[in-house]
Amino acid sequence: MELDRELNAMGAVLAALEPLDAEERARVVAWAMQKLSIQGHQTLKPNSPETKSLEPNDTVQETPVSSKGALWMRQNGLTALHLSEVFHFEDSGAEIIASEVPGSSTRDKVKNAYVLLGLSNFLVNGTPTVGDKAGRSVCERFGIYDKTNHSKAFKGGNELTGSANAGWTVTAPGLRHAATLVKQISKSDD
């Protein structure tokens, strides 16, 4: 009985949204979520506005993204397909699955690894933070951890703020840089 009521409500909502273009639909849905005090995670599905550039036969796993992460995606023109080529999403988080971290030097790669790790946390829980232990672990996995020079990667630049002891936060410029990294790693635009 409750399922029938939900299905009827979904049908009515879809019928009301159908005449609108994707951008108008997104604004209406965002407004409704705000009015109803709905926060937290949403699931981006392959046929959502964020993935409208996909061909019908393309398949992408459902991508659980925080509301802040979904907004970041729209602002940076990224789709679930872009993210699926950089991260593997699970209930507990997102793991970097790119084959390598971009950068012209080990120092750049280390900073980019931390930025991507912060982005993965931002996408899942809305907070772009990185624990130094987790960052070092990712660097070791990619073969870019240099025990002697690791801390030098954080000097200069405005992508990260914090310290090894307190942890790192990816800044607004860092999140813009992260979008560039995702686009660079992703092969979906080829």
What does this structure look like?
The chain has 190 residues and is of the alpha+beta class. The protein is built from seven helices and seven strands, in the order H-H-E-E-H-H-E-E-H-E-H-E-E-H. A three-stranded antiparallel β-sheet has the order 5-7-6. Helix 5 crosses helix 6 and helix 5 packs across helix 7. It is elongated and about 60 Å long. About 7% of the residues have low confidence.
Give a summary of the structure in a few sentences.
This protein has 190 residues and is an alpha+beta fold. The chain has seven helices and seven strands, in the order H-H-E-E-H-H-E-E-H-E-H-E-E-H. The longest helix has 20 residues.
List the helices and strands and how they pair.
Blueprint: H1 2-17, H2 22-35, E1 41-44, E2 63-66, H3 67-75, H4 80-84, E3 87-90, E4 93-96, H5 106-125, E5 129-130, H6 132-141, E6 160-163, E7 167-170, H7 172-185
Antiparallel strand pairs: 1-2, 3-4, 5-7, 6-7
Described by strand count, sense and barrel closure, the largest sheet is: 3 strands, antiparallel
Biggest sheet strand order reads 5-7-6
State the helix count.
Answer: 7
What Rg do the Cα atoms give? 19 Å
Q: How widely separated are the two ends?
A: 47 Å
β-strand amount: 5-15%
Overall 3D shape: elongated
Mean pLDDT across the residues is 81
What is the β-strand count? 7
* Computed structural class: alpha+beta
Low-confidence stretches: 49-61
